[in-house]
């Protein structure tokens, strides 16, 4: 299968490098992989066995300082097959978050914002967030 690339152009939301444990079910098997980065709009899950593009699924992120994993709904937007991976381009899948409601979006975005602040540090986080376009 050929690698499906993310759309060319600037990302809608800034991303922060972060590694979190991700758990999800595929057919009758459970998987545990790790994120490479995260934004308010989605994440990249490192895996040698990505789900098909367009797959909707529920996954759990284990986040330090949270008593329970954060359960999220996402959709596979693009993939990098293991055979096409390089040191600069890891095998895995780009996931776009799907929110059930505005309150769900607000809750998840607050958690992601705090993760970004911790990962980047307050000064870099503030600078990165200030560069966002007003319409985003």
Could you please describe the fold and organization of this structure?
This protein is α+β, with helices and mostly antiparallel strands and 136 residues long. The chain has one domain: Thrombin, subunit H, CATH 2.40.10. 21% of the residues lie in helices and 35% in strands. The protein is built from two helices and seven strands; from the N terminus they run βββββββαα. Strands 2-3-4-7-6-5 form a six-stranded antiparallel β-barrel. β3 (29-38) and β4 form a beta hairpin. α1 crosses α2. The longest helix is centred in the last third of the chain and has 19 residues, at 102-120. The N and C termini lie far apart (33 Å). Residues 1-11 have low confidence and may be disordered.
The first-level CATH class name: Mainly Beta
CATH architecture designation: Beta Barrel
- Summarize the biggest pleated sheet: 6 strands, antiparallel, barrel
Question: Which residue ranges are poorly predicted, with pLDDT under 50 across at least 5 consecutive positions?
Answer: 1-11
Number of helices: 2
Helix content: 10-25%
What shape does the CA trace take? globular
Defining traits:
single chain, 2 helices, disordered N terminus, Thrombin, subunit H, 136 residues, alpha+beta, 7 strands, 21% helix
Summarize the structure.
With 136 residues, the protein is an alpha+beta fold. The protein has one domain: Beta Barrel (Thrombin, subunit H). The chain is built from 2 helices and 7 strands.
């Amino acid at each position: 299968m050929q690698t499906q690339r993310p759309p060319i152009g600037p990302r809608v939301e800034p991303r922060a490098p972060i590694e979190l444990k991700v758990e999800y079910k595929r057919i009758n098997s459970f998987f545990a992989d790790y994120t490479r980065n995260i934004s308010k709009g989605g994440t990249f899950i490192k895996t040698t066995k990505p789900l098909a593009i367009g797959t909707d699924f529920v996954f759990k992120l284990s986040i330090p300082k949270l008593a329970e994993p954060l359960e999220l709904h996402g959709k596979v937007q693009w993939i990098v097959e293991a055979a096409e991976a390089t040191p600069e381009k890891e095998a895995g899948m780009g996931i776009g978050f799907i929110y059930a409601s505005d309150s769900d979006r607000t809750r998840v975005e607050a958690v992601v914002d705090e993760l970004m602040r911790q990962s980047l540090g307050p000064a870099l986080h503030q600078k990165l967030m200030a560069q966002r376009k007003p319409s985003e």
